[in-house]
Amino acid sequence: MIMTKTIRQSNNSKVWTIGSILKWTQAYFTEKKISSPRLDAEVLLAYLLQKERIYLYVHFDEPLQENELTAFRNIIKKRAARIPVAYITGQKEFMGLTFKVSSAVLVPRPETELLVETAINKFSDYKTVNFADIGTGSGAIAISLAKLRNNFSGCAVDISKEALTIARTNAEIFQVSDKIKFLQGDLLAPLYEQNDFNKLDLIISNPPYIPLSDMDKLEPEIRKYEPANALTDNNDGLGFYRRLINDSSRFLTDNGALACEFGIGQSAAIKEMAQKNGWGKYEILKDLAGIERVIILWKQKY
Predict the structure, then answer these.
(1) Overall average pLDDT of the 237-257 stretch
(2) CB-based contacts of 161, cutoff 8 Å, min separation 6
(3) Gap between the Cα atoms of 296 and 282, Å rounded
(4) 0.70 cut: is pTM over it?
(5) Which residue of 27, 90, 140, 257 sits 20 to 30 Å from the alpha carbon of 40, by its own alpha carbon?
(6) Mean pLDDT rounded to a whole number for the chain
(7) Structural domain boundaries of the chain?
(8) Is the distance from CB of 64 to CB of 16 less than 8 angstroms?
(9) Cβ atoms < 10 Å from Cβ of 255
(10) Architecture of domain 2-81 in CATH?
């Protein structure tokens, strides 16, 4: 209420321009302990005005209309309540593509781009790549592969009907619906139903890996608003890796691989699982922050 009153009272004595409202919003978001106050202010105002962010800098002195101020006040209140920017705007950029998102799906993360890039690089010489994206959410991984590389096609699995609705919409937007089959079910279960034994070149997944004991430590944007079943296995964070590593190889061709994102400090446990289950060579890749983030396990030892 303090925020809305401040804007209204000031509006009687001054004209709110793009520049002044951005400055005020940045200060307000900083007060609310939002980690990227200026960026969030710009993204949200650009979304409201249906402009690119560069437009804001070129039109700093442009006054905002009263209806725009009213709408922006509502947006500011949502962000101050720690609703993620992506859920407010209904979209998130990933791999240079803008995906539709909702509270039914995890917000695509920049670190997950490493998982997609790894798959593209490791299978660049394959004439065709038949993949399964397990836990597809918004479809960001599967759709990026199908959109960015002509040789990738396959299926995307999620247990959530609502998530699959979002994923199908994104596939239609990026015109890859003919390259991806969307299946509802728990982890690998739909692959059994499809009888996809020994047919896949790649199984790829960003499974829920946050230990239940860490959930209370997460930022409010994540803890309060993102779907919990996409974040944690309600245990030690390794449950989905146990199932994927135990069962995936039967669906892979002899030259196939399982590629997964994982959390901080989980690589040793995942490597041990792989070794006990007879997987071949593996490679672990670090993200831009130097954190071990992605593992790719090959079915054979060659």
Answers:
(1) 96
(2) 184
(3) 6
(4) yes
(5) 140
(6) 94
(7) 2-81, 91-298
(8) yes
(9) 12
(10) Orthogonal Bundle (1.10)
- pLDDT for the residue numbered 300: 83
Residue 210 is given by DSSP the state B
Instruction: Please give the class, per CATH, of domain 91-298.
Output: alpha beta
Smallest CA-to-CA distance from 278 within 251, 253, 247 is with 247
pLDDT reported for residue 302: 55
Return the number of other C-beta atoms located less than 10 Å from residue 52's C-beta. 10
| Amino acid occupying residue 84 | P
Residue of 143, 187, 150 whose CA lies nearest to 167: 143
d(CA 218, CA 8): 34
Whose tokens are 């030690």? That residue is: 236
Q: Which whole number is the average pLDDT over 170-183?
A: 98
> For the chain, first and last CA: distance in Å?
64
Q: Across residues 81-100, what is the average pLDDT?
A: 98
Residue whose entry in the numeric block shows the structure tokens 């995942």? 270
**Sign of the torsion formed by the C-alpha atoms of 221, 225, 229 and 230:** negative
Pick from 282, 292, 276, 285: nearest CA to 209: 292
Q: How confident is the model over 17-33, as a mean pLDDT?
A: 97
Residue 1: per-residue pLDDT: 37
Please state whether beta strands 152-158 and 180-184 pair in parallel, antiparallel, or not at all (unpaired).
parallel
Contact (Cβ atoms closer than 8 angstroms) between residue 242 and residue 273:
yes
The pLDDT of 10-32, averaged and rounded, is: 87
Percent of the chain topping pLDDT 70: 95
Q: Is the dihedral of CA 46, 51, 52, 55 positive or negative?
A: negative
Residue 102 CB neighbour total at 10 angstroms: 17
Alpha-carbon span 186 to 233, nearest angstrom: 13
CA distance 270 to 222: 24
